Each structure stands twice: as structure tokens, then as C-alpha cells.
Amino acid sequence: MFNYEETDKIELKEKYTDTLPKEIVSFLNANGGTIVIGITKDKKVIGIKNDIDGVQRKVSDVITDQISPRCIDFVNQHVEIIEGLQVVVIDVLPDNKNLYYIKKYGLSENGVYVRNGSSCKSLLPNEIKARYLKTLNIVKPTIEEMTSKTQKLTFNVLKIYLDEKQISYEKDSFAETFKLLDKDGKYNEMAYLLSDQFDESIKVCRFKGDGGNLVMRKEFGKGCIFKIFNEVKDYMQSQQNIVKTYFDNGIRRDEYLYNQVAFVEAWKNAILHNDYAERQYPQIYLYDDRLEVLSHGYALKNDTLDEFIRGVSRPINLQLAKIALNLDITDQTGKGNKDIVRTYGKEAFDILDNTLIVKIPYNKLALEIEKVSTDAKNDAKNDAKNDAKNLEEKLIDLINENNGITKIIMAERTGVSKATVERCIKASNRIFYVGSKKGGHWEIK
Prior knowledge:
Blueprint lengths: L9 E4 L6 H9 L4 E5 L14 H14 L1 E2 L6 E8 L2 E8 L8 E2 L10 E4 L2 E4 L2 H12 L19 H9 L9 H4 L11 H6 L7 E7 L4 E8 L4 H16 L3 E5 L2 E5 L4 H14 L9 E4 L3 E7 L8 H6 L7 H9 L8 H10 L4 E4 L2 E7 L2 H38 L5 H8 L3 H10 L3 E4 L6 E4 L1
Parallel strand pairs: 1-2, 9-13
Antiparallel strand pairs: 2-5, 3-6, 4-5, 7-8, 9-10, 11-12, 13-14, 14-16, 15-16, 17-18
Helix pairs in contact: 7-8, 8-11, 13-14
């Protein structure tokens, strides 16, 4: 018999369930703990009999995508053999610097939990506020102060960008010039962001409806953050902001799905204002009627949202913003946010907990053109299906008259090509040819 019991540090689960995010969050916000999947509440080891890899993938998805702030440094999973059976063990370390929550519920009663004995307790709004304010008072290091997790860094892409702008630098003092070292002379987190070895996931995700089902996820994340900025920008322009064309009194008119200038400004802000010290990265979410650009940990502790919108803001990553300025990625005019407001109004900006969201609605005319185009394609498909069905019936009538009829005669009698007749027969589950090529005949099933 397995000798662990459920306590404030142990959670036993018979199988994977959708309550796992709540259980991980509750341990993160308390004193840490261990979750074991494959053991019943009464301590019976049943193991995971089928698809243990699938269970681990689900656990990984919870850790990386469903909990905020980013918690991968505090949560890990592995497989153990207990009483000859495989179980998944999830170890959760405590973190007293952050308040964790289930991402889709935010800092709410449905999103924030702590471990209380052997259960998960939901925090009340006043408790959430008190604990969140406490985390704001903790002095967190900047990306210039944080030491990079890897020290074997190169900057070939960044140097190409600098050379293109004719920005000179001394090779021997490159890291010092661009403030890529921490106080101990090691590469800092900003150096990692700008290096060729940067390898974190920046996602563009498409959802069906209003965030219900994930139908597409494209990941970017290999190389200098400014390279990724350009790759995402180009991808969104070429693959997502598809032009819809129509004719108005003989004049061709093009309608784009959204304003590309406003999007680029939002994406630029996300890259430069994201709090990388939290090791969370900007994302883009695509919905049926809008796109959203998300940046995490935005420091409204320094600025009000109104100041940010007016462009009177202090970048959270000051040195990164200075390098971007030298590369002409950004400017000092603050006009970017004004362009967004001019196009979409102040309501385009929203704050959810410590996440800044820029919502860009799609062009309704472009959506309507797409709907009409889709309907026309569907009508054409239906017409083609009906034509094929009608042709099949005509061929069956001809075969009933003469089961030795040739394909050439079928084509002449129905007014289509021999190739069309052959395609129809191949697709049919009713028309069959029996016997040799010369002495055979048609049969109808």
C-alpha cells in the first residue's frame, strides 16, 4: 500500500482532470507540494495504463500555457514506478515573490487558490488584493541585473542590424557598450534576448469563437528578439491581414482585415514594454472578430494607462528601448499609441491584472466580403456535387438501356467529356464494370 496521505503538501489524483491548474496554483501560492497522478484518494496505486505521454503533454500544457505568471522554474514533472505501475509526479516549489492564478480567470475568486490542509481554498477579492499589493512592494531585478541562464552567447544577427544602420562599435567592448553584462561581468537577461541563442516561445494563436477552442498555434522563438519582432510582423501582414477585393461601379477596391500600422505599433509596444524579468513573452491571439496583442507584467506602477496611451511613458526595458531607437524600430515621439487611438479609440487598450491587452477589431466590410466569398465557394461546391449526382443518374439510365455501352457513347449522350465520365464512375459506389475489357459489361448495385 502506498504510504502517502493527502496533506497540505500532497495531492493524490486517480487520473488527469481539468482541476490540475487549480491544484498547481494552490501549491505555488502556499508552501509548495507534490501532486501524484495515478493514485486514488484512498491510497490505491492504479497507475496510468494508457497514453502516459498524452498525460504528460496535458500537464506540460497546464504549466506553460494556463498559469500566470510564468511558473516553469517552479514546477516540474517526471514519471515514477510505484508498486510496479507508472505514475506522473508533479513537484511544485513555493514562490513568495508572485501571486499565481489560472490565466483564463485572472485575479478572481475562480482564478486564485491557496493550499488549505488537503484542499484548495479560493481567495476572496479583498484577500487577492492584499496579496497582490504585497507582491508589488517586492523589488524585482531588471533584465539588465538578471544573469542569463546561458553564458555561451553570440550576437551575429544583432550586429547585422547595427551594421545596416551604420552604428559603429568596438568588438572588444561590444557587451559593455550595449550594457549586456550584469554587475559580475556575466551576460545578463537582456543579452539573452538579443542573442542568437534566444529560444523562448512567442506564439500567434487562433481561437474559434470567443476563445473557446484553439484551432491554430504558430510559434516563433529562435534568435534575436528584434528578428522575431520582424518575423511576426511580416507573418501577420502576409498571412493574416489578407486583403479582400470587391468592385464598386467597375472600380476595384481593397479592404484589409485590420489597420497594419496600428497593429505594428501595438506589436512594437508589446516587445519593448513586456516585463521579461517575469520570463513571460508577448503573444498574439486571433479571434473571429478581432486580434489581441498581449504583453505581460506591464508596469502601470510607474505610469497610468492614460499616460501610456498619450505616449508619456517610461519604458520598463530602458536599454532595450534605446537599442530599438538606434535601429529605427521605434521613435521618441510617442505617436504609436496615438495612431492606435486615432483608428480604434481608447477602448482598444485594456488592463487585465498585470497584462496589457491591445484589442484591434476586424474591418466589418472585409469580414462581410469574406462571408460572401465563402458562401459563393460553398454554393459552387454544392452545385458541383449536384452536377455529379445528376450525371451518375444519367449514366445509370444509359446502362439500364444497354449494359455494354462504351464510355465514349456515354460522354456523347450526356454532353460531357470522356474524362468526366471516368471520374464520375470512379467516384460512384453504384456503377461497376465486370469481366474483360472487350467482353465485359456494366452492373448497377
